[in-house]
Specification:
The protein is an alpha+beta fold. Helices cover about 55% and strands about 15% of the residues. About 50% of the residues are buried. Bound molecules: flavin-adenine dinucleotide.
């Protein structure tokens, strides 16, 4: 793995940074307050080639590498973690389709999603099954030449607005994880009800909702991947998704560091800028060091994927470490800002609230530790 970005990766970083500074950052605080869904920004990201960017050009993507994807996620999150989370969730669904879809399924769904004409979501979690995803109750039973789906999903990112869902359902309850399959479900299939946006602690402009499936008839050709292999295929998609969440966490932490360093130079106590107090210097130094370490872990996992290696352990390490770094960095940012850090106008309390999702979504920190330990002890 090279420690340095290639000229192409630098170009991508410059382009996404410019877009994020100009188009994303200015409205982020307002969207956090109103929860307004940024349709237009998602469309613009798609038109610039940043949605589904790792998909091959023949299937509608930009054919970019995973390191570039990590750079895009970091830069977006540095400006607005809510927008980055939605790009990450779409990427999870896109990756699942890209890895396991038939050529016909890819042709039918990917170009529209990547071009921003349709939104997609990835729905595994249920009210009674999150970390223990194999305990899901959504059932898919054969119905003539198709399937009948019944069940309820929750916490689905883009759940209230998506046009296409990748839905995991049990095709054989007794076989638990060995009896789960994935299906492509369209919002207009009779029996699909998208829930209302849920009210969240952070990433508030990111849409999250439940989805109810009531006798939804899904044609046989919308089975995604082989029957009963949906659980393992979902884990494969998550391996790549976690690189995105790790990068998102690095972006939040980087924003926390930048705003804190700038504030520390301006705010005076005891006759000098707080940046000259050693406690504050120590906080900034720790933040910067941890952020670099987190970024390197994220880029290692991405670079390994780019050379065709599986990264179950490395993706989990990157997500675990980067999420916890983001939380610590956001905490320090609030502390460095003192009382102002607790107020909305400086935006650091938003970073603090947004960072928390990283230790939960796409597998909690506890689950990441279980994944890493399992790989270590094999
Ligand atoms: C904003 C947001 C967006 C999301 N988007 C999506 C999405 O798009 N699609 C989707 O499918 N899901 C999504 N999720 C769901 C997310 O993946 C789950 O919330 C997460 O996997 C945890 O599941 P749970 O909430 O059921 O918690 P639980 O599984 O009930 O866990 C509760 C606590 O117990 C711990 N725990 C559980 N099992 C163990 C164990 N064996 N050992 C030690 N500790 C354990 C957990 O780590 C956690 O601390 C989203 C969640 C959020 C908050």
């Amino acid at each position: 793995m090279s420690m340095f970005l290639t000229p192409e990766q630098q170009q991508i970083r410059d382009a996404i940074r410019a877009f994020a500074e100009e188009r994303v950052k200015p409205g982020a605080a307002q969207r956090d307050v109103t929860g307004e869904f940024p349709f237009e920004l998602l469309r613009e990201l798609a038109s610039l080639g940043f949605i589904g960017m790792t998909v091959a050009p023949d299937d509608g993507g930009a054919g970019a590498d995973w390191v570039s994807y990590a750079i895009v996620m970091e830069e977006l999150a540095r400006a607005d973690a809510a927008l980055a989370l939605m790009v990450g969730a779409m990427s999870l669904a896109i990756t699942h389709i890209n890895l396991y879809g038939t050529p016909e399924q890819k042709r039918r769904y990917l170009p529209d999603i990547i071009a921003g004409r349709r939104l997609c979501a990835w729905a595994f979690t249920e009210p009674g099954a999150g970390s223990d995803a194999a305990a899901l109750r959504t059932r898919a039973v054969r119905d003539g030449d198709g399937w009948l789906l019944n069940g309820e999903k929750t916490f689905t990112t883009l759940g209230s607005v998506a046009d296409v869902f990748v839905v995991m359902a049990s095709t054989n309850l007794a076989k638990r994880r060995h009896g789960i399959s994935a299906f492509l479900v369209e919002k207009d299939f009779p029996g699909v009800t998208r829930g209302k946006p849920m009210h969240k602690m952070g990433v508030r402009a990111s849409d999250t909702s439940g989805v109810v499936l009531d006798n939804v008839r899904v044609p046989a050709y919308n089975l995604l991947g082989k029957e009963d292999e949906g659980y393992w295929n979902a884990l494969h998609a998550l391996e790549l998704g976690r690189i995105g969440i790790g990068a998102l966490a690095v972006g939040i932490a980087q924003a926390a560091l930048e705003v804190s360093a700038s504030y520390a130079k301006q705010r005076h106590t005891f006759g000098k800028p707080i940046a000259e107090h050693q406690f504050i210097q120590g906080y900034l130094a720790d933040m910067a060091t941890e952020i670099d370490a987190a970024r390197l872990l994220v880029r290692r996992a991405a670079a390994m994927q780019d050379t065709g290696q599986r990264t179950r352990k490395e993706s989990a390490m990157a997500k675990l470490f980067a999420s916890e770094v983001a939380l610590r960095a956001a905490d320090k940012a609030v502390q460095i800002h003192g009382g102002y850090g607790y107020m909305q106008e400086f935006g650091v309390e938003r970073l603090y609230r947004d960072a928390k999702v990283c230790t939960i979504g796409e597998g909690t920190s506890e689950v990441m530790r279980l994944v890493i330990a399992k790989e270590l002890l094999k």
